[in-house]
């Protein structure tokens, strides 16, 4: 079977990696913290001493680290994945990063005859466990097809958007819309409060009516506690920034309504909680 390497065993990546090994793909792991790999002691996964060793043991390497710099580090440093990976391998980037970073990495990988697929995900660790994560893939069709059986261990659907970078575009567009909807939801429930309405009942109406959104459902499920969204604020700000930078670089007019609503959300989540 295809040998898989996985780096990035956080709350999102760990369930993805566990699904891969549960489907009996030979899996090699590497992490900066030993505790991350110790959690897989009950599986058949092996642990590499360095990213290059993981690359040498893998046909496909999946990355689910946090940011552009993290992706570049584990791939391009002297003992990075590409230093060990054989020609013909594929790197699948599940992290949400700038499309330009994907293209830079692909240029470096091509020197070693390694392909790159950008495959950011949406849905959270629970969705990966239940095999219903969304994967948005960009890259050459044969490379995406080669990765698809691995992706389908934790994802449904797996959507191929087009050339390298289009998966990232889809992800940051999704996150721009989600961020805007968070602001709409916050205002909606605040408005309902002002009208003397029960916000829990309003949330039920939205869940079954045409005015509902994923953001409103997430807020309602949390008991209208914004702590989780506030914790995600740096990531939301990063992704909104990437989307708007891509638009500006492409000289495509910004979607001003979405941009304004997203800015409103980021500002609201950045405000201190009332005592």
TrEMBL record:
Identify a single GO molecular function assigned to this protein.
NADP binding
Which intervals hold domain 6-phosphogluconate dehydrogenase NADP-binding? 3-162
One Pfam family name from the record?
A: NAD_binding_2
Kindly give the PANTHER family that the UniProt entry links to this protein: 3-HYDROXYISOBUTYRATE DEHYDROGENASE-LIKE 1, MITOCHONDRIAL-RELATED
Q: Which organism is the protein's source?
A: Streptomyces himalayensis subsp. aureolus
Q: Which InterPro entries match?
A: 3-OH-isobutyrate_DH-rel_CS, 6-PGluconate_DH-like_C_sf, 6PGD_dom2, 6PGDH_NADP-bd, HIBADH-like_NADP-bd, HIBADH-related, NAD(P)-bd_dom_sf
Keyword check for NAD, yes or no: yes
The name this protein goes by in its record: NAD(P)-dependent oxidoreductase
The alphabetical list of record keywords is:
NAD, Oxidoreductase
Q: Does the keyword Iron-sulfur apply?
A: no
Family to which this protein belongs: Belongs to the HIBADH-related family.
What is one Gene Ontology biological process annotated in the Swiss-Prot or TrEMBL record? organic acid catabolic process
Q: Where is the 3-hydroxyisobutyrate dehydrogenase-like NAD-binding domain?
A: 165-257
Active-site residues, Swiss-Prot/TrEMBL: 171
PROSITE patterns from the entry? 3_HYDROXYISOBUT_DH
């Amino acid at each position: 079977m295809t040998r898989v390497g996985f780096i990035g065993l956080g709350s999102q990546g760990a369930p993805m990696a566990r699904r891969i090994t549960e489907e009996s793909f030979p899996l090699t792991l590497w992490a900066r913290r030993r505790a991350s790999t110790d959690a897989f002691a009950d599986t058949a996964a092996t642990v590499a001493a360095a990213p290059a060793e993981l690359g040498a043991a893998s046909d496909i390497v999946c990355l689910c680290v946090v940011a552009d710099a993290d992706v570049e580090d584990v791939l391009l440093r002297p003992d990075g994945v590409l230093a060990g990976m054989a020609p013909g391998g594929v790197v699948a980037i599940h992290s949400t990063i700038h499309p330009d970073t994907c293209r830079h990495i692909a240029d470096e990988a091509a020197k070693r005859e390694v392909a790159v697929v950008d495959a950011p995900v949406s849905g959270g660790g629970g969705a990966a466990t239940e095999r219903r994560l969304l994967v948005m893939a960009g890259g050459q069709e044969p490379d995406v097809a080669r990765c698809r059986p691995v992706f389908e261990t934790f994802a449904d659907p797996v959507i191929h958007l087009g050339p390298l970078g289009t998966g990232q575009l889809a992800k940051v567009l999704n996150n721009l819309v989600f961020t805007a909807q968070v602001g709409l939801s916050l205002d909606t429930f605040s408005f309902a409060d002002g009208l003397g309405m029960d916000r829990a009942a309003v949330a039920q109406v939205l869940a079954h009516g045409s005015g509902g959104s994923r953001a409103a459902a997430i807020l309602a499920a949390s008991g209208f506690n914004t702590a989780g969204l506030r914790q995600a604020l740096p990531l939301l700000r990063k992704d909104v920034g990437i989307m708007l930078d891509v638009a500006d670089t492409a000289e495509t007019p910004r979607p001003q309504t979405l941009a304004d609503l997203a800015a409103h959300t980021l500002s609201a989540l950045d405000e201190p909680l009332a005592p």
